[in-house]
Amino acid sequence: MNATFFDGKVSRPHPAQYTLSAYTIEIRYTDADGQERVAEWPLQEARLATWNPSGKTRLQFGPFPHQYLDVETADYEARFIPARQLLKSARPGLYEFVLSKGFRGVVLVGVVAVAFLWLLYAYGIPALSLQVARQVPAEQEVALGDMLYRQLENSGGLSVDKTKTAQVERFWREMGVKTRLPIRVAVVESKEVNAFAVPGGHVVVFTGILKKFNRPEQLAALLAHEAAHVEKRHSLQQLIRSIAAYSIISVMFGDVSGITAVLVDNADNLVSLSYSRQHEAEADAFAVEQLARQGIDPMGAVWLMEALPTEGEVIPTLLRSHPHNAERVAATRALAQKARTRVIPNAELQALWQKIRENSVR
Amino acid sequence: MESYALRNRLRFVGTGSDLFGIYLLNMLLSMVTLGLYYPWAKAAVLRYTYANTQLDNSPFQFHGTGKEIFVGFLKAVAVIVVVYTAAIALTFASSLGLKVLGFVIIYAFVLALVPIAVHGALRYRMSRSSWRGIHFGYRGDRNELIKMYVLQGLLTVVTFGIYSFWMTQNINRYTIGHIRFGSARMHYTGDGADYFWLCLKGYFLTILTLGIYGFWWGRDLFAYFVDNLAIENEGKTYQFQSSLTVGSYAGLVIGNILLIVLTLGLGAAWATARTLQIILDNTLLDERLDTGSLVQTELEYRDATGEDLADMMDIGLI
Q1: Does residue A310 have a pLDDT over 80?
Q2: Residue A208: its pLDDT value, please?
Q3: Residue A189 above 50 pLDDT?
Q4: B295: closest CA of chain A, how far (Å)
Q5: How many Cβ atoms from other residues are within 10 Å of residue B143's Cβ?
Q6: Domain for residue B138, yes or no?
Q7: SS3 helix, strand, coil % of chain B, rounded to 5?
Q8: Does ipTM exceed 0.85?
Q9: Which residues cross the membrane (chain B) (predicted)?
């Protein structure tokens, strides 16, 4: 049969004739000097090249430098049926398979990709980040948190009010809640109704949220809630989660250099970290439990939620991640009632609250 | 002077939908393997684009395998990890002097990595590329390239970046001039001064015309590269030439932006295919070059470290 042979020595195409036998292929061609030549290759040393020139099927022989035989695809399909089993990669590869299915192949791969992505996002990453967060030693967590907090401060995002910070810090200490890591509170001048926790113990409270409170229990509940995110490593997990998600996106788009830049711009995300429903429920429960233990009315956790706007105004981060607010308030109320606390009046706490309130209304 | 014609002898016959299928499969497999599939993904894209790029109706072929690139990938990751570990360790260093010294050393090391990566990537990529069985090769000297980067890099800093125009052209001349295509060799004759004026003119006219001149500038930059490219075979030099018009360049750029933006990035495969088609359709080559007379000259070379190092450092190569 007619074919074109490339001898691996020169780029000139040689018109050739080939004969197939059970285990070998014999190629007869005329070389550049007009000499008749024969090349014989065992089929086991032949490979099928992928993505062939149109209408041709390309066979590749031997080690570097390879020799090639371009045969008509129609001939290949008719004559190479027994030979195919001996040819390496004679089975179509995954790419060739998908492309040969055309539109359906692409849709199939797309569906599998989306399903996998969803599984990873909904189950894989949270489970992984929990495991990783548990392995991080306390000192590292504090060091990381401090670094991120400083980065936030330096980027000009936070203007800390020293007086209010000192007052709220004292309020927190007076509450007497014991935590794994020391909690460091910062009050930031901002209209935003928001508060967030940084891994390692920083809790940032915006003055906007303080203005919404009219009872000390609300502030106590807020601080306990944010402290819970630190205590239970939620913010650390969330950070790990966003790094993991970012890495996956980088991988998806083949942007390898992006992965290395992950940590750099992660600090800004802290402000808008949103927790899962489960994390919020855990933090609410922690707040109720700690308030009750310290003789502060745990209903503060409910009053806190009621004081925050849920419609019209911007939904604060504290509530954002939770679509079922009514449900969450009800659950917290139930917890608070079950706690059946004997409320112990605390004059010091009350006095501090008065100061904070005077300061924030002014 | 002998008269000759320039003909369009290169073309890209691949399609956006094939590329889309490959990208999608790559994405899925990369996710499933947490990114470890990357080298195989890259090899697949290169195999496809090479196989669908033709010179005188014969396809090119990429011989690199995912496994080779994976080994290179591991080495490159090791290098990057060492650099990052050193940098992170230094942030905890107590003395300021130590910190400064450490960062200067790391910085110098990373700068030296650029020519090492470029050299490695060229050696690997060229040796794994062939056409009608004739392999390409890169015969540049690594130390020479490092010297060029260091000295001219310093000159660039001293001249507040102005020398960078000369530097890029000098490096192009060196790297392209050391590419072998069997017995033929490539040539690049671009020159810093010409390139500088081209960019200076393009920059100011683009600003003055509120960006419209950008299409002319883009066309000129492409033409500058291609028109300075030549191939030497059996003692004769054969010129490449651009036939890209402002219209087709503008169509390419605007079309690609629309393709990518309107599809939220899903159209990237089609944009790539269009770009390759238009670039190759507008690259003409002296018709007298006898592509049947190339002789095999290059040795086999398998180290793929440079390939991935270059990727991680965002150095674009072909």
Answers
A1: no
A2: 84
A3: yes
A4: 4
A5: 10
A6: yes
A7: 60, 15, 25
A8: no
A9: 20-40, 69-93, 100-122, 146-166, 195-216, 249-271
Phi, psi of A188 (to 5 degrees): -115, 135
Calculate ∠ Cα A349-A353-A355, nearest 5°.
120
Residue B257 amino acid letter: I
Q: Which residues pair with A68 in a beta bridge?
A: A6, A60
pLDDT of A324 higher than 70: no
User: Does the CB of A35 have a partner CB in chain B at under 8 Å?
Assistant: no
Residues 126-185 (B) with a CB less than 8 A from some CB of A? 130-135, 182
Across B139-246, where does the E strand assignment appear? Answer: 179-181, 184-188, 229-233, 236-242
Angle CA A16–A19–A22, to nearest 5 = 150
Assigned domain for B282 exists:
no
- Is B25 close to A9, i.e. CB distance below 8 A? no
pLDDT at residue A270 tops 80: no
Confidence (pLDDT) at B304: 65
| Residue whose tokens read 């409910």 | A302
Q: For residue B170, what pLDDT is reported?
A: 95
A98 and B25 within 8 Å at the Cβ level: the answer is: yes
Residue of chain B minimizing CA distance to A100: B18
Q: Do the domain assignments include residue B249?
A: no
Q: Do A254 and B38 touch (CB under 8 A)?
A: yes
Count of the separate structural domains present in chain B? 1
pLDDT in tens, chain B (318 residues): 566 789 999 999 999 988 998 988 888 888 788 778 888 888 899 999 999 999 998 999 998 888 888 888 888 888 888 888 888 887 777 778 888 888 888 888 888 888 888 898 898 899 889 999 899 999 899 899 999 998 998 899 899 989 999 999 999 999 999 999 999 999 999 999 999 999 999 999 999 999 899 999 999 999 999 999 999 998 899 999 999 999 999 999 999 999 888 887 788 899 999 999 999 999 999 999 998 888 888 776 666 666 666 666 555 544
Establish if B50 belongs to a structural domain. Answer: no
Closest C-alpha to B42, from B125, B108, B111? B125
> DSSP code of B5?
-
Q: Residue A254: its pLDDT value, please?
A: 54
State the smallest CA–CA distance between residue A55 and chain B in angstroms: 12
Which helix (H) or strand (E) segment is A212 a member of? none
Q: Is A75 exposed, middle or buried (0-12, 13-18, 19+ CB in 10 A)?
A: middle
Please give the interface size between A and B, counted as residue pairs whose CB atoms are below 8 Å apart: 122
Would an 8 Å CB–CB cutoff place A321 in contact with chain B?
A: no
Query: From the candidates B13, B24, B77, B313, which should be mutated to test the interface with A, based on the most A CB atoms within 10 A?
Result: B24
Cα(A206)–Cα(A228) distance, integer angstroms: 18
A89 touches chain B (CB under 8 A): no
Question: Does A65 sit behind a cis peptide bond, omega within 30 degrees of 0 on the bond before it?
Answer: yes
**Cβ-contact A148, A140 below 8 angstroms:** no
CB contact under 8 A, B80 and A49: no
Whether residue B295 and residue A9 make contact (CB cut-off 8 A), yes or no, is: yes
CB contact under 8 A, A7 and B295: no
The closest CB to that of A113, out of B31, B134, B293, belongs to: B31
pLDDT at residue A314 in the model: 44
Q: Which residue of A has its CA nearest to B91?
A: A147
Rounded CA-CA distance A68/B63 in Å is 13
Chain A residues with CB under 8 Å of B18 CB are: 99
Rg for chain A, CA atoms, rounded: 34
Task: Quote the domain boundaries for residue B164.
Answer: 68-180+304-318
Q: CA nearest A37: which of A58, A66, A16?
A: A16
Contact criterion met (CB < 8 Å) for A106 and B17 = yes
Taking the Cβ of residue B313 and every Cβ of chain A, the question of whether any pair is shorter than 8 Å is answered with yes
- Which two structure tokens, joined as six digits, stand for B159? 């001249």
